[in-house]
Structure formats: structure tokens, C-alpha cells
Specification:
3 domains; left handed beta-beta-3-solenoid; mainly beta; single chain; 28 strands; 347 residues
Length: 347
């Protein structure tokens, strides 16, 4: 032990004079990783096991790029070099990636010891995806379904009396969609829907068709009022005159999200939807949260108007202001839209 300590002292001394001593860190010039995904999980993204095939570094973290629009899923592996190693410049030819069709996208060094490697997975789960189930129509013309594990989005087509309303295919990442603006006459409506694979955007499930939705004159009038005037042009701001039906359902609090959600009678939740209760008008965002503060909301005419929703606690929380002045001293008309000198502001 004493001799080893002496050697360390001498080495430390000569390292001041000579290059290439034992204290010099070794450069990592090659990366070799093996990927294995657990596709049996019900989670939107599978868990991934990553095994380094050579020495000098360890796996610090792995995250899928959940907002990527690429054809195949991508993820970023964060590698951390051991104490006596550092990363050189890593290129595609320096990487050996195996499993799940992994292929190099890019490598970015955060420091000499930390490297972020972005990988594309071209064979993950073979891209297969199931079709949606539990298709449901609400009286407002909104459709919903059970979310599908492994789906990045859903494509829909609207049918009227067994025929396509148009050649347009609608796509959404949510598990609900409003056809209110496309329902313009009485009759029997249905919709066709298929899932788009999260793991390969050119792979789809089979098309399935919903049960029929009977639209009579009363239902059509309700849908028209929602599609053409979600804030209630023909109703007072507090909904007391009863010109527009109250929205069936109830608010549910999710502490994990710190937000209120509107739950429909069938158990689904409302997204980007106006909610009319005995207390007033509310709105749910694309994440399903009860809206608060100023919100630009697009109408059926393609123009967006700005509305203010209560930010306090109690019954006033989330309620749309109408025919008054907001807490920050802006004016909203009887429909709740922001006005300047009596003119509704649009964008």
C-alpha cells in the first residue's frame, strides 16, 4: 500500500511535465447500445431497456419525444461518461444501435461528460394499433371514444343517412371531436373512425362505424345554437331565459392535474367545448381543463374572439364574464366577447 501511494505521488509530479500519463482521461469514440421495448404496457409509451455494449459510459436517462411528428417514434438517450472518460465528437458511423429498428438521428454534447443521442425506432411494435371502441354520440353533436394505447391520433369521417357528408377526413389527438358545425339537417348521422399508429404514422387500424345518431328538428336547433353561437347569442349570459339547453354532466376535480374537468353522462370528458350550466357559461380547453382568465376561442365562422373566465374560487371560478367589465378593466358584451368602443375584437 505504501509503495502504491508513492507511485501516485510520482505520477502526479511527472504529469505536470509529460503528456499521456495515467491521469489523462480516455476519449470515447464509439457508442454501442441495445434497445428492448415492453410493448405489453397499457401506457401510451412503452418502457425501454437500454444496454450499453462497451465501457466508459452509463445511461443517465431516456425520454420519448412525445410531440414529434416524424413517421417513426424518436427518443433521446442521455449518456454520462465515467470519471476517467470523456466524449469525443460522435457521428452516425461511430454508433452501433441494435433492437427495435433503432437508427441514429443526431448526437449533441452538453459537456465533455454528457452526450444526448437522439434515436429513431423503425420497428417498435411493428406499428400495429387497435381500432377505437365505445363510440358515443352526445346530443350536442360531439363524438367520443375510448383512448387507444399506441395511437398518436385518430381519423374520422362523417356520414349522413349512410353517405359521406364530404370527402374530408378529420384528424385529432384527443378522444373526442365535435361535428356540430357539419350537422346541418335532420336525419341519421354516424361516423367512421380509425387509429393512427404512434410508432409508424403510415400504419392504421381498420375503419369502424359508430351507431346511428338520430337528429330531429329539436336536436338540430340545439346543435345549431352550439355550432354557430357557443356563447349564447340567443340566451342571456347567465342562461336564465332557457333558450339554450343546459349541458348534461358534472364538474370533476382531479388533484393530480390541479384542474376541473367536465364529465359527460357516459363518463367521457369534454375537450374544447362550451359548457352551459345553471350558473353560466364555461369552456374546456384542449387539455380538458376548465378555462380561466382570457382565452381566444375560434367560432364556426373561423374567427377567434376573446372571452374572460373567472379565476377565483367558488361558483365564480371558470364562469364566463358577460355584459360587464373584467377585473383588469376590459369590456365584454352580452355574449362575453371582448369589445373596444363597442366593436367585437376578432383574429
Amino acid at each position: 500500500m505504501k509503495k502504491w501511494k508513492t507511485a501516485v505521488v510520482l505520477t502526479a509530479f511527472f504529469s505536470l511535465l509529460l503528456p499521456g500519463t495515467a491521469f489523462a482521461r480516455e476519449r470515447i469514440e464509439e457508442i454501442s447500445l441495445n434497445f428492448s421495448a415492453d410493448m405489453g404496457s397499457e401506457d401510451p409509451w412503452p418502457s425501454v431497456e437500454i444496454t450499453p455494449e462497451n465501457d466508459g459510459y452509463m445511461i443517465e436517462d431516456f425520454q420519448f419525444l412525445s410531440d414529434s411528428s416524424e413517421k417513426y417514434p424518436q427518443g433521446t438517450v442521455t449518456l454520462l461518461a465515467d470519471d476517467d472518460y470523456y466524449f469525443g465528437t460522435i457521428k452516425r458511423t461511430d454508433c452501433t444501435l441494435e433492437g427495435e429498428g433503432a437508427s441514429f438521428v443526431k448526437a449533441v454534447k452538453d459537456s465533455s461528460r454528457k452526450l444526448r443521442l437522439t434515436v429513431s425506432f423503425r420497428e417498435m411494435g411493428d406499428g400495429e394499433v387497435s381500432a377505437p371502441s365505445s363510440l358515443f354520440w352526445s346530443e350536442s353533436g360531439t363524438v367520443s371514444w375510448e383512448p387507444v394505447p399506441g395511437a398518436r391520433s385518430y381519423q374520422l369521417r362523417l356520414m349522413h343517412n349512410g353517405k359521406a357528408v364530404s370527402t374530408e377526413t378529420f384528424e385529432t389527438k384527443e378522444s373526442s371531436y365535435s361535428f356540430a358545425s357539419q350537422i346541418t339537417q335532420t336525419g341519421t348521422y354516424s361516423f367512421r373512425i380509425r387509429s393512427v399508429s404512434r410508432y409508424n404514422s403510415s400504419v392504421y387500424s381498420d375503419w369502424i362505424t359508430s351507431p346511428g345518431f338520430q337528429v330531429n328538428e329539436a336536436t338540430l336547433e340545439l346543435i345549431r345554437s352550439i355550432a354557430g353561437n357557443p356563447s349564447g347569442e340567443n340566451a342571456s349570459a347567465n342562461g336564465n331565459d332557457g333558450a339554450v339547453s343546459l349541458t348534461p354532466g358534472q364538474w370533476q376535480w382531479f388533484s393530480s392535474q390541479n384542474a376541473w374537468y367536465w364529465q359527460n353522462p357516459d363518463g367521457t370528458y369534454a375537450y374544447q367545448q362550451w359548457i352551459h350550466t345553471s350558473d353560466g357559461w364555461y369552456y374546456t380547453g384542449s387539455d380538458g381543463h376548465m378555462a380561466s382568465g382570457w382565452q381566444w376561442i375560434k367560432g364556426s365562422d373561423g374567427l377567434s374572439r376573446c372571452y374572460y373566465f373567472g379565476t377565483g374560487d367558488g361558483n365564480a371560478q371558470g364562469r364566463m364574464y358577460a355584459g360587464t367589465t373584467t377585473p383588469d378593466n376590459y369590456t365584454v358584451n352580452g355574449d362575453g366577447a371582448w369589445t373596444v368602443d363597442g366593436k367585437v375584437q376578432v383574429q
